[in-house]
Amino acid sequence: MKGQAMARWRLVVWLVIGVWSLWAKSLVAQEVPTEVRIGSKTFTEGVLLGEITTQRLRAGGVEATHRAELGGTRFLWSALLAGDLDAYPEYTGTLREEILAGTDPALDLADALAAYGVRATAPLGFNNTYAITMRADQADALGIETISDLRAHPDLVFGFSNEFMDRGDGWPALRDRYALRPASVQGISHDLAYRGLESGALDVTDAYSTDAELSYYDLVVLRDDLQHFPRYEAVLLYRADLPDAVARLLHTLEGHIDEATMVSMNAQAALDRVPEATVAAGFLETRLGLVVDDAPEPPGRWARIGQRTNEHLGLVALSLLAAVLVALPLGIVAARRPRLGQVILGMVGVIYTIPSLALLVFMIPLLGIGGLPAMVALFLYSLLPIVRNTHAGLTDLDPALKASAVALGLTPWAQLTQIELPLAMRSILAGIKTAAVINIGTATLGALIGAGGYGQPILTGIRLDDTALILEGAIPAAVLALVAQLLFEAAERVVLSPGLRLSQGS
Questions:
Q1: In sequence order, what are the beta bridge partners of 48?
Q2: Which of 175, 208, 338, 454 is the most exposed place for a label (fewest CB within 10 A)?
Q3: Does residue 321 sit in helix, strand or coil?
Q4: How far apart are CA 429 and CA 415, in angstroms?
Q5: Which helix (H) or strand (E) holds 382?
Q6: What's the N-to-C CA distance of the chain in angstroms?
Q7: Which tens digit of pLDDT belongs to each residue from 85-113?
Q8: Which residue from 45, 57, 123 is spatially nearest to 86, judged by alpha carbons?
Q9: DSSP three-state, residue 98
Q10: Could you tell me the pTM of the whole model?
Q11: How far is CA 354 from CA 315, 362, 419, in A?
Q12: How do strand 130-135 and strand 219-222 relate by DSSP bridges?
């Protein structure tokens, strides 16, 4: 009997390995690059430059796809090095101060990038430097014209974009350079910061000098009197192994986008709500005389919701299935082996406390971008509730029931499958339901690494201050979470016997 139990466990392990192998293989097969992949950051100008680059390649006869709104600098840079992106727009100041911060400042930028297998075009034609801004009426009333003037007003509320809060050229360096000691400093989304200034919730924030919102919200840029910020010339980074014909097309954009043009395009996209693809096509036709004939027609709202629903369900269902197959045996082992159980519970607990954004960044060098790293992250976050509830359900059983099973001469496997697991099933199902609901919400972050799902319209809606677009992702996610709860309640009625439900108070 002992050999039979071991054989069953081997079967379970091989089943888990097989599911994971087929899953990973299918995802990798779907994401084999058949075209040049252009990435962009989660702000309007980055998306516009990514779209211009993509359409320029298409006009030159190159198949290209734009993976928009992939998070911040580290997401894009890691994806480029991992080979999941072929090119993306970047800025020279960011390269020097953030990406290449540990290299010799005297080293030529091209040589420093070459060490990573990366090249850059010449500047596209404009400088988009960081700026510190506040409402013009407030600055005038307080007599603030320079960043140094802020030292006399420590009571002002500072709110900086989350990336600026941690960058080498961001808030820590700015604070030390200008000896600023404000009473309140908080991190906030770049796009939400402008609304914070307008409402009065914030007094000071960081901005990009080409942001159309500066004039729209009547903001003033404080003079960088100590010249803290370097120049941020826009360039295109691309992998050195990109075909020469493709690289030459990227270089044709050099010097063609001046600051006024960039500000105008940002205003069209961010304020006038003109689709980025339309703005990019207009620029290429007006400035370079290029027409992209194969630009895809944007899908309607219901088609978008259907597509995002399929993507979201795929992320949640596959990650939850893998979690159940792994976490259920772990919970059983934890209940049967108390000392080992403490280690297992501790490990899954530690995994659960890792911030989701940090976990996604860690996974890019290992798994790239797209659905696979998002699903692995969701799988890891699902382990704790299932392991913990399985462990609790088994350890909370009446000792008299276990003693009766032993007295009846049942084998350990029979005790587990015929008595313990059925009695603990309510707790186990509760853990799986918790993991499912958590996954549905957390999966929205997968959009930051190109996994799609309901997070995509939410991110875009936040960037464009489009409430309807935010709700296009938020409402279906809430509905899906509610449906998941109802399905698990129905499953509980099917799995649990009427007598067991009655005895447990249902």
A1: none
A2: 338
A3: helix
A4: 19
A5: helix 371-395
A6: 36
A7: 999 999 999 998 888 887 777 788 999 99
A8: 57
A9: helix
A10: 0.76
A11: 19, 11, 36
A12: antiparallel
